[in-house]
Amino acid sequence: MFFMNLPVILVAFSAIHAAYGAFTPKRRATCAGGQTVNNEACCAWFPVLEDIVPNMFDTECGDDAHGALRLSFHDAVGFSPTHGGGGADGSIIVFQDTELAFPANAGLDDPINTEIPFIKAHNVTPGDFIQFAAAVSLTLCPGAPRVGFMMGRPMPLAPSPGPDGLVPEPFDNVDVILERMADAGGFSPTDVVALLASHSVAGADTVDPTIPGTPFDSTPSVFDTQIFIEVQLRGTQFPGSQPGQGEVMSGVMGELRLQSDHLFARDSATNCAWQSFAGNLPRTQNAFASAFNRMSIIGHNPADLIDCSDVIPAALPLPADAAPHLPAGQTMEDIEQACATAAFPTFAALPGPATSIPAIPQS
Ligand code: HEM
């Protein structure tokens, strides 16, 4: 009886097996350094990791880590189903003569020049390296989630660069940015706000070129939710002698506020999502990682890529004393309530008099 039904059982089992890929036995491989991965092609990335952490990033969440993260966005978002561009394909490096001339890419010559020798030394594609470096940069920023990494992006082919105008500018309004992000990668308004958590580990070099490295929040070397709190403060001053294009007054001395971040915190399409991340790090981490993973494969069919997420090191937690707060000298009265359906969460101010946030040391 059992043998008579065996073919039926086998057919049924293979159907279930095919439908639930998770049950498929993994092709585990042990790399030369003893690490275990799901696909042996991923082993090639451990030497890259061991090189770039000390030698490209100085093992810190500083200027080079910030630049690598921004570069991953500018390469990936250069994609439109109707206007062209190859997405996360490394075209920003391979066709830098074209893409660095786009005004939105100002300043990216720095991370590109930093990354090129490592790309050459490890003989990987620029598209893969840009997204790998960004995923690794986050592991150096305490509080950031561990994001994934897919390998297999081929070299971009001409005419890969899309037209100018695909990368959002800080002087674009919220509608324009949301439309662009939906077109580039199907991102929802909440996805876009979540991606802006990246501005927690960030600053501006070119918005006001007289003050390079001016941070967007008071804690640019940790991935926390201070960006969502501090951009909601009433703007009172510019960090430089005069505002740059796409800059508005910030609420904290030494901090630079992008007009786009300011508007995202206040526009009715995004203000409640913005507020929902203030003080809620787990929510921010989850939403950011989900959107970032989708961003890093724009322009590719995931079936053509290999999941090498197991090469990405564990995330670093935020220090236990890094609670969300108002900057010293501020009160909840300084918060500009924008979301109509819920109150902004309450935070206490750091003790002491108001201080100025120092610039991010430039590499
Ligand atoms: C969607 C609208 C966005 C706009 C308008 C925008 C705009 C800007 C601008 C103007 C700067 C300053 C550049 C400079 O002067 O050096 C900047 C920095 C930065 N951005 Fe964005 N950004 C956006 C989204 C993103 C996303 C999605 C990411 C990554 C996931 C990102 C990551 C960064 C990082 C890490 C920096 C700091 C770079 C550094 O310190 O060297 N941004 N952004």
UniProtKB/TrEMBL annotation:
<dbReference type="InterPro" id="IPR044831">
    <property type="entry name" value="Ccp1-like"/>
</dbReference>
<dbReference type="InterPro" id="IPR010255">
    <property type="entry name" value="Haem_peroxidase_sf"/>
</dbReference>
<keyword id="KW-0376">Hydrogen peroxide</keyword>
<dbReference type="GO" id="GO:0005576">
    <property type="term" value="C:extracellular region"/>
</dbReference>
<keyword id="KW-0560">Oxidoreductase</keyword>
<dbReference type="Pfam" id="PF00141">
    <property type="entry name" value="peroxidase"/>
</dbReference>
<feature type="disulfide bond">
    <location>
        <begin position="31"/>
        <end position="43"/>
    </location>
</feature>
<feature type="binding site">
    <location>
        <position position="75"/>
    </location>
    <ligand>
        <name>Ca(2+) 1</name>
    </ligand>
</feature>
<feature type="site" description="Transition state stabilizer">
    <location>
        <position position="70"/>
    </location>
</feature>
<feature type="binding site" description="axial binding residue">
    <location>
        <position position="199"/>
    </location>
    <ligand>
        <name>heme b</name>
    </ligand>
</feature>
<feature type="domain" description="Plant heme peroxidase family profile">
    <location>
        <begin position="124"/>
        <end position="343"/>
    </location>
</feature>
<dbReference type="InterPro" id="IPR024589">
    <property type="entry name" value="Ligninase_C"/>
</dbReference>
<keyword id="KW-1015">Disulfide bond</keyword>
<dbReference type="InterPro" id="IPR001621">
    <property type="entry name" value="Ligninase"/>
</dbReference>
<dbReference type="GO" id="GO:0004601">
    <property type="term" value="F:peroxidase activity"/>
</dbReference>
<feature type="disulfide bond">
    <location>
        <begin position="272"/>
        <end position="339"/>
    </location>
</feature>
<feature type="binding site">
    <location>
        <position position="224"/>
    </location>
    <ligand>
        <name>Ca(2+) 2</name>
    </ligand>
</feature>
<keyword id="KW-0325">Glycoprotein</keyword>
<feature type="disulfide bond">
    <location>
        <begin position="61"/>
        <end position="141"/>
    </location>
</feature>
<keyword id="KW-0575">Peroxidase</keyword>
<keyword id="KW-0106">Calcium</keyword>
<keyword id="KW-0732">Signal</keyword>
<dbReference type="GO" id="GO:0042744">
    <property type="term" value="P:hydrogen peroxide catabolic process"/>
</dbReference>
<dbReference type="InterPro" id="IPR002016">
    <property type="entry name" value="Haem_peroxidase"/>
</dbReference>
<dbReference type="GO" id="GO:0000302">
    <property type="term" value="P:response to reactive oxygen species"/>
</dbReference>
<protein>
    <recommendedName>
        <fullName>Peroxidase</fullName>
        <ecNumber>1.11.1.-</ecNumber>
    </recommendedName>
</protein>
<feature type="signal peptide">
    <location>
        <begin position="1"/>
        <end position="21"/>
    </location>
</feature>
<feature type="binding site">
    <location>
        <position position="89"/>
    </location>
    <ligand>
        <name>Ca(2+) 1</name>
    </ligand>
</feature>
<keyword id="KW-0408">Iron</keyword>
<keyword id="KW-0479">Metal-binding</keyword>
<dbReference type="InterPro" id="IPR019793">
    <property type="entry name" value="Peroxidases_heam-ligand_BS"/>
</dbReference>
<keyword id="KW-0964">Secreted</keyword>
<feature type="binding site">
    <location>
        <position position="217"/>
    </location>
    <ligand>
        <name>Ca(2+) 2</name>
    </ligand>
</feature>
<feature type="active site" description="Proton acceptor">
    <location>
        <position position="74"/>
    </location>
</feature>
<comment type="similarity">
    <text>Belongs to the peroxidase family. Ligninase subfamily.</text>
</comment>
<feature type="disulfide bond">
    <location>
        <begin position="42"/>
        <end position="308"/>
    </location>
</feature>
<feature type="binding site">
    <location>
        <position position="87"/>
    </location>
    <ligand>
        <name>Ca(2+) 1</name>
    </ligand>
</feature>
<dbReference type="GO" id="GO:0034599">
    <property type="term" value="P:cellular response to oxidative stress"/>
</dbReference>
<dbReference type="InterPro" id="IPR019794">
    <property type="entry name" value="Peroxidases_AS"/>
</dbReference>
<feature type="binding site">
    <location>
        <position position="219"/>
    </location>
    <ligand>
        <name>Ca(2+) 2</name>
    </ligand>
</feature>
<dbReference type="GO" id="GO:0046872">
    <property type="term" value="F:metal ion binding"/>
</dbReference>
<dbReference type="Pfam" id="PF11895">
    <property type="entry name" value="Peroxidase_ext"/>
</dbReference>
